[in-house]
Amino acid sequence: MKPDFVTTPQQNNPMLSFLDREHTTAPPGYSRWLVPPAAIAVQMCIGEIYGFSVFNLPLSRTLGITKPAAGDWSVPTIVLCTYSLGLIILGLSAAFFGKWVERNGPRKTMVASACCFCGGLVVASLGVRIHSLPLLTLGYGLIGGIGLGLGYIAPVSTLVKWFPDRPGMATGMAIMGFGSGALVGGPLGVVLMEHFKSATSVGVSEAFLVMAGLYFVMMNFGALIVRVPAPGWVPEGYTPSTEVKKLVTTANVSVDTAWKTPQFWLLWMVLCMNVTAGIGVLAQASPMAQDMFGVSAAAAGGFVGLLSIFNMGGRFFWSSYSDVIGRKGAFCVYFILGCALYLLIPYSQKLNSVTFFGAIASVIISMYGGGFATTPAYLRDMFGTMQVGAIHGRVITAWSMAAVLGPQLVTNISAYQKAHGIPKEQAYNGTMYLMAGLLVVGLVCNLLVREVDPKHHHKEWTT
Amino acid sequence: MNDRPQKSPPWLIALAWILVSLPLSWGLYQSILKSKPLFMGPAPAVAAPSPTPSSK
Hints:
The structure holds two protein chains of two kinds. By secondary structure, chain A is mainly α.
């Protein structure tokens, strides 16, 4: 059998052409079950941004080492220049590079993502070492953010093409990888900082360097094993359904056309509302648990860890479930059940039941993750597989918007209520009602989604 | 010449899944450990150094 990387005769640089889309086509007999671990390997690494908060306090005393000194960065500045900027650039780069990703295939994109994300960590490490905020911003926020955007959308269209029978489960596995980034990246960062801290260093710079090396190996492992299916390939024993489903198209819509359709903007709103509401709990989980139930800071930290597990698990569970009930049905569940659960949170405080509150918040966060994972499959159903990665890239800008909007809403409303004399255990009630309202908006947008007008279908490409 | 397609070796599939499962399991274990205090009831008050140890 001819190895798949020598199938095209013209090669100028074998090393670089190995990365091209045409040299990534799977040979006959290649198992599609190699693609999900390839996707998870990349997503798990870039998902480290979810665990970045473990670096906040150490970064705020890089000069003072044991406590912040004059000239040290403040935590809000660090969060803005790294976490927030990284997520904003993620959305923008996913939107901007989406077509490039479709053209060049998953392997080249994954390698580019590894170079940007890990290179960004190296630059950020240097920034910490010489205490340069612009360098930290450039490394983690800008260069790293581009790596995030590329890595996030790279495997999506590939997985959708490999699993036409279970697209929700396939994208769920990949996006679950991103959710798991906090579970791995956070503790890894803590272990590395503990190992490297000394009288002259908080250990962040060294931790960034080691993480860059580990992540680079892991991400390139993913790039090495990923393949795209040969044109016309279908899974063994799978016969595409001949039954016409209203909201599952067999046609394709190009990215340039898709974003001009009402369906694109309705789905943009659906994702934006789901994420904004989810962040409402996620961003305030620790102070909410402490203020509403008087739990210790350690227990509240554990609560955040618990939510991370549900955030990860929900991505796989709900997205797989959407293969059964359909994407529109799945989002209806997220919005209706989510709305009811948000309204129950003030009641859990009245009962003073932290277990009840924990259960409610866990289900809400599982659906927050589920929304992320179901979106690519929803886009595939509406716009086909031709440029679903690029379309997904543009929809991801909704996440960037929500990442700014959500925490601002929650923080300001609860602060306003506290300032107006409302007891701290009740200060979050208004926010919860607002989040329920946002979910109602999302539900309306979801209910308005109809199939794309055939006039938008691409003429030369059919699945 | 053998024209039968060469299937991906099962060990490669297993290795790929193990490579991603190992860090994932470690992270999951760490998070479960960290969330234990939430289910252990209110923590006993930490004895803070006090100038008057006998005061209640």
